[in-house]
């Protein structure tokens, strides 16, 4: 009798877990998830989702490239997340990547190739109105994303990243043209030309990922480096140059020694596989080298002494697109969108970088092991056509990390094993009860009744 009872309870519990959480299935092999983590597919059918944020009511806002900004309410616990019906917040097909929202849920920012827009936003209704162009003059034919970072450490400062207009854009040697730069703006002002902003950093080919460390306010960018690189006539593009993580100091530091620094592009590039670089000499991984058409080696000293080197480097062509710190500034999560300019696909994952108490990565600048993958494509040989491609990242108020996949029109949620918050510094906030919660409660009630009967 007792054995039969235990069996019945086990079946009931298994049924509850299986039936309570909506299950979406991808068209490609399931992701490979590192020990200690869970990843669940929670949304499909979006149009090239890129940047995303959460507002002060816990709603998810996501940029759908070529559509505008869409919003979803969120319910459920642990990794069992359910998105409500999609609602259009901004219908503007020119929006393609950048998005920010103020902590009070009253102001929304989004970007197109040419313009940063500001909207009055109502987080209760998930609605916007009165768009205003606050930054213009950014149009280009290549490298089209304009990442937005609204500082939480320095009042009224919006950082806007703008890439170059070619793979190797020689015009970017002039700081005044505004290409391949990070600039700082006052978002309360309107009709600002991009070149009127304060230059935070330049010589940044395409710094798509930008983040502010909540611990100390340090600003970081992840640079997508050049393709098809040659040196002294030799093609070295398979394993050089490295993608870069660059440090730009603190926005509230009036004596920031890194303000306005040049980070090398288009003359200097971070080394990854030094053995494949002609006349490398004493060059090390993480140091910059030159690619001048003649006698590039003689220019390496210029790159070392006159340009700001990267703090970390990543494998070439992994294409880092977004950066998000946890609440303590101890972990920096990175989306690696993946390669096209390489024989063997690399990237296509979400990875993490460890940071120390000093606000800096624990790995040295010459390390090749700074990234630890946590969610990856299990078969990258099918990439990019048959896999997910990570793009944007965002934290919800329960410490869950969400990732967009633009190529597949999907969103994933990432938590620790057992459904625990990935960022436990964020206090859990109650959400609408999910079917999993309700069925779980029924199971508990059933167990209680059975044991009461036994007693």
Automatic annotation (TrEMBL):
Keywords noted in UniProt: Signal
Which region is the signal sequence? 1-18
What Pfam families is this protein classified in? Answer: TrAA12
- In this chain the Pyrroloquinoline quinone-dependent pyranose dehydrogenase beta-propeller domain maps to 31-416
Q: Which PANTHER family match?
A: LACTONASE DRP35 (PTHR47572:SF4), LIPOPROTEIN-RELATED (PTHR47572)
Q: Can you say what this protein is called?
A: Soluble quino protein glucose/sorbosone dehydrogenase
Which organism encodes this protein?
A: Clohesyomyces aquaticus
